[in-house]
C-alpha cells in the first residue's frame, strides 16, 4: 500500500466515525414572551437538554403542523399562521373528531379532516393549533381536543390556542401553572376548574415553554409567536413580518423582499 492510499484510508475511517453536530432549533424555549401591547418581555433561559433532544422536530421529518377543525371553527384566526408556515415548507394537516365527515367553519367553509383525532400522535407533529369556536362555550363536545393538547404538552410538542380554545385548556387545568392570555381575564375566570388567574398576562399573545395563547383579536401576534417557537423565520425577518402585517409598516417590506430573495421569507 502506497503512502497516498494509507492517508486516504485513514481519512475515510475518520469520516465514518465522526458523527454530525446536532442541529438546535431557534425560537422561544422554556420562557415567557409577553409582547405586543405590553412593552415588556421576559427573556427565555438557555435551551434545555430536552430541547436539544428534539432537534429534528419542525426542521426535518416533523415539518408537519396539525390544525384542529370542528363545526363553528373560527377560520380567520389561523389564516396567517397556516398560510405562512405552508410558504416556509411546512405541511398543514387538519384533524377532526372523526375523519369521515366534513365540518363547517364559522365562515361557512366545509373542511374534510385529513385524519381523526384518535390517530394523531405528538411524535408525528411539530405543533397542534386550536382555534376558537362557538362549541368551546356551549358544552364539552371539544373536550377531546383539550385532552390531546395535554398529551402534546406532556410529550414536549408545542400547542397554540387562540380565542375560545383557551377556555377549553382552562377547564382542562392546562393554564393553572403556565403564563397565558385570552380575550379577557374574566372570560377565563368564569371557566369551571380554572385556577390559573395568577398566571394571566395582559398581552396580545404569550408563549410559555410549549404553550402559546392569544386573544381573539390577535391572529397576527398569534402567528408571530408560532413562527418564533418553530424557528420559521430569522429574528430580524420575523420582526419585519410582524411590523408589516400587524402595523402596516411599509419600511418592513424591503426587509421581507430581501429575505425572500435569499430564501429566508
Structure commentary:
With 265 residues, the chain is of the alpha/beta class. The protein has helices spanning 3-17, 49-53, 79-87, 143-154, 165-171, 185-189, 219-230, 235-247, 252-261; strands at residues 32-35, 64-68, 91-96, 103-104, 110-111, 115-116, 127-130, 159-162, 205-208, 211-214. 33% of the residues lie in helices and 14% in strands. Mean pLDDT is 84; it is low at 1-33 and 35-61.
Quick summary:
This protein has 265 residues and is an alpha/beta fold. The protein has helices spanning 3-17, 49-53, 79-87, 143-154, 165-171, 185-189, 219-230, 235-247, 252-261; strands spanning 32-35, 64-68, 91-96, 103-104, 110-111, 115-116, 127-130, 159-162, 205-208, 211-214. Strand 2 (64-68), helix 3 and strand 3 (91-96) form a beta-alpha-beta unit.
CA-CA gap between termini: 52 Å
Backbone shape: globular
Low-confidence stretches: 1-33, 35-61
Secondary structure: helix percent: 25-40%
- DSSP summary: helix tally: 9
Amount of beta strand: 5-15%
Strand order of the largest sheet: 1-9-10-8-7-2-3-6
Structural class: alpha/beta
Mean pLDDT: 84
Rg result: 21 Å
**H and E order:** HEHEHEEEEEHEHHEEHHH
Number of strands: 10
Secondary structure: elements and pairs:
Layout: H1 3-17, E1 32-35, H2 49-53, E2 64-68, H3 79-87, E3 91-96, E4 103-104, E5 110-111, E6 115-116, E7 127-130, H4 143-154, E8 159-162, H5 165-171, H6 185-189, E9 205-208, E10 211-214, H7 219-230, H8 235-247, H9 252-261
Parallel strand pairs: 2-3, 2-7, 3-6, 7-8, 8-10
Antiparallel strand pairs: 1-9, 4-5, 9-10
Helix pairs in contact: 3-7, 7-8, 8-9
Amino acid at each position: 500500500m502506497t503512502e497516498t492510499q494509507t492517508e486516504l484510508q485513514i481519512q475515510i475511517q475518520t469520516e465514518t466515525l465522526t458523527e454530525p453536530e446536532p442541529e438546535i432549533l431557534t425560537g422561544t424555549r422554556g420562557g415567557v414572551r409577553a409582547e405586543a401591547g405590553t412593552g415588556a418581555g421576559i427573556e427565555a433561559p438557555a435551551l434545555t437538554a430536552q430541547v436539544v433532544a428534539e432537534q429534528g422536530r419542525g426542521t426535518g421529518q416533523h415539518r408537519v403542523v396539525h390544525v384542529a377543525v370542528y363545526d363553528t371553527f373560527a377560520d380567520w384566526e389561523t389564516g396567517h399562521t397556516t398560510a405562512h408556515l405552508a410558504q416556509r415548507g411546512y405541511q398543514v394537516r387538519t384533524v377532526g373528531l372523526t375523519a369521515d365527515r366534513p365540518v363547517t367553519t364559522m365562515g361557512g367553509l366545509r373542511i374534510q379532516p385529513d385524519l381523526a383525532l384518535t390517530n394523531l400522535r405528538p411524535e408525528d407533529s411539530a405543533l397542534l393549533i386550536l382555534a376558537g369556536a362557538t362549541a368551546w362555550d356551549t358544552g364539552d363536545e371539544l373536550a377531546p381536543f383539550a385532552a390531546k393538547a395535554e398529551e402534546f404538552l406532556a410529550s414536549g410538542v408545542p400547542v397554540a390556542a387562540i380565542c375560545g380554545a383557551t377556555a377549553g385548556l382552562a377547564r382542562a387545568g392546562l393554564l393553572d401553572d403556565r403564563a397565558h392570555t385570552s380575550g379577557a381575564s374574566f372570560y377565563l375566570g368564569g371557566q369551571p376548574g380554572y385556577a390559573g388567574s395568577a398566571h394571566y398576562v395582559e398581552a396580545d399573545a404569550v408563549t410559555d415553554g410549549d404553550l402559546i395563547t392569544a386573544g381573539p383579536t390577535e391572529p397576527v401576534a398569534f402567528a408571530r409567536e408560532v413562527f418564533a417557537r418553530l424557528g420559521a423565520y430569522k429574528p430580524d425577518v420575523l420582526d419585519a413580518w410582524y411590523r408589516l402585517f400587524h402595523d402596516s409598516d411599509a419600511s418592513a417590506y424591503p426587509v421581507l423582499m430581501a429575505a425572500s430573495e435569499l430564501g429566508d421569507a
